[in-house]
Amino acid sequence: MQFRTSVAAVFASLLGLAVIVSISGAFIGLLSLESVDTRLRTESRTAAESLTEGSAPGRVAGDGIRVLDTAGSPVDGKGTTALRPWEINSLKAGKGVTRSGGTADSGAGVRWVGRVVAAPSGKPLLVLAQADLSAYRDVRTTANRVLGLGSLVVALLVGTATWLAVRGALRPVRRMRLAAARLPVGERLPLPEADDELRSLARATNDMLARRDADTERLSRFTGDAAHELRNPVGSIRAQAEVAVVHPDPELAQETLLQIEQEARRLSELVEGLLALARSDTATPPEGGPVELVAAARLVVDRANTAGTGTRVRLATPLSAVTVWATSAEVATVLDNLVANALRYARVVVRVSVLPTSRGARLLVDDDGPGIAPEHRPHVFERFYRAEADRARDGGGSGLGLALVAEVVRRRGGSTLVGTSPEGGARLEVRLPDRKR
Question: Which residues belong to any copy of the HAMP domain (predicted)?
Answer without folding.
Answer: 167-217
